[in-house]
Write a structure and sequence with these properties.
2 copies of one chain form a homodimer. Chain A has 5 helices and no strands. Chain A is mainly α. Chain A has one domain: 434 Repressor (Amino-terminal Domain).
DNA sequence: TCTAAAAGTAAAATATATATTACTTTAATT
DNA sequence: AATTAAAGTAATATATATTTTACTTTTAGA
């Protein structure tokens, strides 16, 4: 997986730290960090939580390929 | 999670069985069955594979909530 | 009605996402 | 330059997605 810059910038647009987003989504800060870094493979449930907090859809944040 | 009828019908539209879709996405048939039944929480990587095989986007297949 | 393919379901095993703790590095502010 | 918050990173532990095997039920066609 590649770096998730869309997520990073959506978070920045709301002026949230990784820690803030972690708390709002109910996961650890490291998990958020690793997702943004593209080092793994979040569950759908977590993707949906992130979308809601960042006021985006799945395609906005997690759709890349071609 | 709720039943994923969007995925079920996208699969039906291409005339694929659960087994077919499982083979094309590289997972087991049971995994496909459980996702359609809404009994768990696939990884993003798997969602993306399913989307590609079914010619849909994440929002098409996995976005529900209001 | 028989048959076979497809779908549904379950238990145990394995792989991997995520948590926890803790340390390092970067960026911003004083 | 010193301090602090934020971000990056790593090791180990835990929760859970996914596989495997195997059985049952439903559906469609002969």
């Amino acid at each position: 997986m590649a770096k998730n810059l869309k997520m990073k910038s959506a978070r920045a647009a709301l002026d949230l730290t990784q820690k803030d987003l972690a708390q709002k989504t109910g996961v650890s800060r490291q998990t958020i960090n690793l997702i943004e870094k593209g080092e793994y493979n979040p569950s759908l449930a977590l993707c949906l939580k992130v979308c809601k907090v960042l006021h985006c859809t799945l395609d906005d944040l997690f759709w890349d390929e071609e």
